[in-house]
Automatic annotation (TrEMBL), chains A, E:
The chain crosses the membrane at residues 31-50, 62-80, 100-129, 135-162, 169-190, 202-225. This is Heme exporter protein B. The keyword Membrane applies. It is a multi-pass membrane protein. Its main location: membrane. Belongs to the CcmB/CycW/HelB family. InterPro entries: Cyt_c_biogenesis_CcmB, Cyt_c_CcmB_bac. Keywords: Cell inner membrane, Cell membrane, Cytochrome c-type biogenesis, Membrane, Transmembrane, Transmembrane helix, Transport. It comes from the Bacteria. It is found in: Cell inner membrane. It comes from Thalassotalea eurytherma. Required for the export of heme to the periplasm for the biogenesis of c-type cytochromes.
From TrEMBL, chain B:
It comes from Thalassotalea eurytherma. It is found in: Cell inner membrane. Required for the export of heme to the periplasm for the biogenesis of c-type cytochromes. It holds the Pfam family CcmD. InterPro entries: Haem_export_protD_CcmD, Heme_exporter_D. Keywords: Cell inner membrane, Cell membrane, Cytochrome c-type biogenesis, Membrane, Transmembrane, Transmembrane helix, Transport. The chain crosses the membrane at residues 15-39. Belongs to the CcmD/CycX/HelD family. Its main location: membrane. This is Heme exporter protein D. It is a single-pass membrane protein. It comes from the Bacteria.
TrEMBL record, chains C, F:
It comes from Thalassotalea eurytherma. Residues 8-209 form the ABC transporter domain. The gene is ccmA. Pfam families: ABC_tran (PF00005). Keywords: ATP-binding, Cytochrome c-type biogenesis, Membrane, Nucleotide-binding, Translocase, Transport. This is Cytochrome c biogenesis ATP-binding export protein CcmA. GO terms for molecular function: ATP binding.
Automatic annotation (TrEMBL), chain D:
Its main location: membrane. Residues 28-184 form the Cytochrome c assembly protein domain. Belongs to the CcmC/CycZ/HelC family. It is a multi-pass membrane protein. This is Heme exporter protein C. Required for the export of heme to the periplasm for the biogenesis of c-type cytochromes. The lineage of its organism: Bacteria, Pseudomonadati, Pseudomonadota, Gammaproteobacteria, Alteromonadales. It is found in: Cell inner membrane; Membrane. The chain crosses the membrane at residues 21-44, 56-83, 95-115, 127-146, 158-177, 201-224. Pfam families: Cytochrom_C_asm. The keyword Transport applies. Keywords: Cell inner membrane, Cell membrane, Cytochrome c-type biogenesis, Membrane, Transmembrane, Transmembrane helix, Transport. InterPro entries: Cyt_c_assembly, Cyt_c_biogenesis_CcmC, Cyt_c_biogenesis_CcsA/CcmC. PANTHER family: CYTOCHROME B_B6 PROTEIN-RELATED (PTHR30071:SF1), HEME EXPORTER PROTEIN C (PTHR30071).
């Protein structure tokens, strides 16, 4: 009576991805909320700073990226908190497949649900903030490579704080400093683009961050989860 | 010796405020660090001692209970 | 020395929580065909022991062996042979009863369409499409337990499986356990209720509540 | 391969060994700092450009250099703790974090107090300054995470993972100097071998630097002992030791 | 065997206040974390926007206030979420004293823990952002009257979303638009102060918001809680 | 018509969840000295009924009366006479066992220092200063139940009070219920275990599981 027919790594990955997407799509809010949060935070600034086009255009890249950081941050909780609270996480650690596969699936689902929509709405907000016309390409590229990094790094933070009762703000303390390189290089790329200069250097660095976090984060997350659930 | 009087020493060539602010804050922080280290060391020891005391109290209670149940 | 047909054996386990020794140098073994009840009062360390056996927490000292290999050497193989259901059921309130079950079945390599049939076993007929968060305490737990009916894995570790389950439900579960043991499986469980299983089939490990 | 480490992996032996080292570090630090600071405040010459405000140098630079070295040390300790399961390495990482945070804060405060007379502003968002600020955040994150766990062994592991992940930040931020213009001075003293400064400024700096370094060692030893105790509180030797000391 | 000795309204208020403060002080992080979040968010902007003192000084009031808004927002979860999840909220609804007393105590505790520390750290951050020197007074006053409004309004949002599994971002959607008046008048007051003009008009409006929310919010929250826990 | 000494009576309650009628036109009354067990299989509507009786949810139709007054007319008075402990215990993991209990006692107007003594009743001696989140499932629940030992309020509504409690604990609780009823109180509870209380003292309300 040995067990038979264990799903392959790919199957397990797909099952997990499908499950997380199902849950997110069940409450459609889950997709629209980070998006709306992003939009609202961006619109808070013209309200707080005043409507001058020149100032806004100057600070637009910073604001859009900071808002993207915060929107990702707020949605991170969904990654493991709920699963921890209802015991699902425990079950995942007992799945025959290695934990990092499950983790990878969950992080990718998270990005699809929160990161991807941001990329679609960003150009609209850029118009509202009078972003320099040359910068649109850089904005899109940095968001496309940068937001997955945010999900990967963020996952480490959540995994570390998932067992702690009130991780809410502790999470930001841990994660935001790690986000800073992405922020710096992304806004620097957009600013460079505005001056019509090549920004491939910055993009290359973000790309390197992407590959590093893509390969290493799942392992760090698995280790962190094992600590948190002990 | 770079200074001819105490007042000159305190004044630091007009930069007194900044120099003494730096040295003062540095001293303060270091002292706080040392105090915190000493206090937490003591606290840990006290916590262990308290736990031990409680365990002994419980052990005695358990022994008493065992004796009571035996005698009855 | 553990006998050769021991599926799982614990070797001199010590568990310390909050400076209290829950158990010390505890050795025991679990063979095919065993139903083992871990008994003991509240706070004795039953849950702690089960989590160590399942590989979810590390003992302070000692080791758990699966097929005479230390656990950490072949986690994947062990997990292929283990089903653990803890105090928390691992059921997502946002998914329907059927989806929840289908996910766990699929993770074992079973076809998801078996879910509907399996839900009948736990008397959840008619609730397949109800969100799990809209079910009663007992129905919620039944979803988690339902997968046992399809489970091919030999080792079952169940922490208070009868919580919130009504009498008929408890009886069905007990029958299932006996069935599983007869087919060469091994059930390790805790409960504060009396088991209505033939006493010869059940072994008991008594954990004492140690004050110090 | 790691067998030779075994005696040092015994908490009791390490505890007593650390206890023996502490007074040495303490006295070395007191003597070096006493000489160094007196020299720095009273006898070292004023800088021909910066005047007497240059005396801030003798705290600022040691603190700044130590703040970064401590982080690297902490990350290395955390890494060995995680990879080779050395519980004591975790404990030493936990002991280092608050010390590093304090030295980072000192570097920031003294830097700000130096910047006001020199650059006319307390703070600018220059790469060097910003990276030091982020370093402070990293330290605070590690400390906060450590405090958030009740179980100190778990806390050490979790904080260790964070410390390691945070290391990636350090080179990135250091090299980002290229992306920004910088007001802050480049390396002068930290170029080993040929210091680009006069000997009567350099010697008191060395005294101060090593004075602070031994201070770090002494405080870390003390905190390390505390960590060992709190992680082994149910061991008989700890109980005996505590009973002995608290009476 | 009728029950005796029911605590007076004031006693019940004090008991609740003490309980919430105890829980917060137990993990000292709870006080430092929103504060650190505030500081980190403020530092994100210079990193994203660039270090020019003139730009920073121009947008400083907006940044500080937006950061205060977000810090309050993130800490709101603590207000009722945990109590709901462990059944304490149910118990509070069965306390003989009217619910709004309990609610008031909880909101005030929340402000003491998260709002008050912000006020102390704000001047330091203002220095970092090169805030105009005339504006410090206005910054402090608006924070002092404004942050309690944030807690009161936020409480309504949490009470409405407490029964929903993942209120995280939904909460921001409900609450942030309600925060906008505070943001606008506060930053306007600070900007006016920078020009050395009287800003008592804006402060008066924030004061009015304060009294309105102080008197009405506890009732709104009680009603919302009853709906959420049904 | 309810008799005059009825503490609480339910008048033609109907409860509908998810389009399923759980019970319809249910009338019952609870007198001083009653121990009433609400029985029924999982999902029958026991928890729903208890929450309606406690005033935590509104019935679809019908009304609950306390001392012959509709509930909503005198919520405060009713709450002065009611103790409800549900599936969730209302214990904060961040506070110690003693602080948790002291808070609930103080809210009833009892001196907080009674807490330590009371914890002994539920066998939590030695855990006064342990954070509640560090206790076992049963110990956690015992903190919530401890307040019953000090409780002056006549109406107790308890949803599966025996969950996770060991046998000795269950026995103690049962004795307490009998004591309380004798002193003129009224206990309304659900449980899937058999009560070991003299059958004459216990009334049972059987909820049937209605499929449609
Ligand atoms: C808040 C403001 C400041 C911060 C955070 C800061 C930070 C640092 C750091 C991290 C280092 C170590 C560099 C290394 O080891 O490579 C350093 C070194 C140094 N800093 Fe600052 N600094 C600040 C302001 C100042 C000011 C205002 C001055 C003088 C005008 C100054 C002068 C120096 C000097 C001379 C060194 C030694 C450089 C070397 O030779 O390596 N700093 N500072
Ligand atoms: N939050 C909810 N939303 C919608 N329907 C619900 C909800 N909670 C319960 N129900 C429905 O009400 C029915 C009865 O639930 P209830 O919790 O009252 O049962 P119970 O008798 O207490 O069962 P158990 O013995 O399992 O605790 C459930 O079958 C479910 O369909
Ligand atoms: N998370 C934790 N942190 C620290 N100590 C804990 C933790 N969980 C449990 N303990 C301690 O371990 C002891 C045993 O807990 P455990 O959950 O194993 O008991 P149990 O036998 O399952 O009890 P129950 O029958 O109540 O479920 C508890 O008394 C408690 O002191
Ligand atoms: Mg248990
Ligand atoms: Mg129920």
């Amino acid at each position: 009576m040995m067990s038979i027919n264990i799903p392959s790594y790919r199957q397990a990955f797909m099952l997990m991805l499908k499950r997380d997407l199902t849950i997110a799509l069940r409450h459609k809010d889950d997709i629209f909320n980070p998006l709306l949060f992003f939009i609202i935070v961006v619109t808070l600034f013209p309200l707080g700073i005043g409507p001058e086009a020149s100032t806004l255009s100057r600070i637009a890249p910073g604001i859009i990226w900071v808002a993207a950081l915060l929107a990702t941050l707020l949605s991170l909780d969904r990654l493991f908190k709920a699963d921890f609270a209802d015991g699902s996480l425990e079950q995942m650690m007992l799945i025959p497949q290695p934990l990092f596969i499950i983790v990878l699936a969950k992080i990718i689902a998270h990005w699809l649900i929160t990161g991807l929509p941001l990329i679609f709405i960003a150009p609209v907000l850029a118009v509202l903030l009078h972003l320099n016309e040359n910068s649109y390409g850089a904005l899109m590229i940095t968001l496309l490579i940068g937001t997955p990094v945010l999900s990967f790094i963020g996952a480490i933070g959540v995994a570390l704080t998932v067992g702690i009762k009130k991780g809410g703000v502790l999470l930001s303390l841990i994660v935001l400093p790690l986000y800073i390189p992405v922020l710096i290089f992304a806004t620097s790329a957009i600013d460079t683009a505005a001056m019509n200069l090549p920004y491939s250097g910055q993009v290359a660095i973000i790309g390197a961050l992407f590959f590093t976090s893509f390969t290493l984060a799942p392992f760090a997350v698995s280790a962190a989860l094992k600590v948190s659930t002990n | 010796m770079q200074f001819s009087s105490f007042a000159e020493f305190i004044d630091m060539g007009g930069y007194g405020f900044y120099v003494w602010l730096s040295f003062g804050m540095a001293t303060l922080l270091l002292v706080l660090l040392v105090m915190n280290s000493l206090v937490s060391n003591k606290q840990v020891k006290q916590r262990i001692a308290k736990q031990q005391a409680r365990q002994e109290k419980l052990k005695r209670a358990a022994k008493q209970q065992a004796q009571l149940s035996q005698s009855s | 020395m553990p006998s050769s047909n021991a599926l799982l054996h614990a070797d001199k386990l010590t568990c310390i929580r909050e400076d209290r020794i829950l158990f010390e140098a505890l050795s025991c073994q679990f063979n095919q065909g065993d139903i083992v009840q871990i008994a003991g009062p509240n706070g004795a360390g039953k849950t702690s022991l089960l989590r160590i056996l399942a590989g979810l927490s590390q003992p302070f000292e000692g080791e758990v062996h699966f097929q005479n290999q230390p656990l950490h050497k072949n986690v994947e193989l062990y997990n292929q042979n283990l089903t653990y259901i803890g105090h928390l059921a691992g059921i997502k309130g946002e998914m329907t009863a059927q989806e929840n079950l289908a996910f766990y079945l699929a993770m074992q390599g079973l076809p998801p369409h078996a879910a509907e049939q399996t839900l009948e076993n736990v008397n959840l007929l008619g609730f397949e499409d109800a969100l799990a968060s809209h079910l009663s305490a007992g129905q919620h737990r039944r979803i988690a337990l339902a997968r046992l009916w399809q489970c091919q894995k030999p080792i079952w570790i169940l922490d208070e499986p009868f919580t919130a389950i009504d009498k008929q439900g408890v009886k069905n579960l007990e029958n299932l356990f006996v069935e599983h043991a007869k087919q060469g499986g091994c059930v390790i469980l805790t409960t504060h209720q009396d088991l209505a299983i033939d006493a010869q089939l059940v072994k008991t490990i008594e954990l004492e509540y140690q004050l110090v | 391969m790691w067998k030779w480490l075994h005696p040092y992996a015994n908490p009791e032996i390490t505890y007593h060994f650390t206890g023996k080292l502490t007074p040495w570090f303490t006295w070395l630090s007191i003597i070096l700092l006493a000489i160094g600071l007196t020299w720095a405040l009273l006898f070292a010459p004023a800088d021909y450009q910066q005047g007497e405000s240059f005396r801030i140098f003798y705290i600022h630079v040691p603190a700044a250099i130590l703040s970064m070295s401590i982080y690297v040390g902490m990350a290395i300790a955390a890494f060995s703790g995680l990879v080779w399961q050395l519980k004591l390495a975790d404990a030493s990482a936990a002991a280092l974090a608050p010390v590093g945070a304090v030295f980072t804060a000192i570097a920031l405060i003294t830097g700000a107090a130096w910047g006001k007379p020199m650059w006319g502003t307390w703070w600018i968002w220059d790469a060097r300054l910003t990276s030091e600020l982020i370093l402070l955040f990293l330290y605070l994150g590690v400390i906060a995470l450590h405090n958030a766990f009740e179980d100190k062994a778990l806390a050490g592991k979790a904080a260790g993972i964070l410390a390691i992940v945070g290391v990636i930040n350090i080179p990135i931020i250091k090299y980002s100097v290229e992306w920004w213009n910088t007001l802050h001075q480049g390396a002068t003293v930290s170029k080993f071998g040929k210091p680009a400064m006069s000997a009567d400024m350099y010697w008191p700096f060395l005294f101060c630097f090593f004075g602070f370094a031994f201070f770090v060692a002494a405080v870390t030893c003390l905190r390390f002992k505390t960590e060992i105790l709190s992680r082994n509180s149910m061991r008989p030797w700890v109980k005996a030791l505590v009973k002995e000391e608290i009476k």
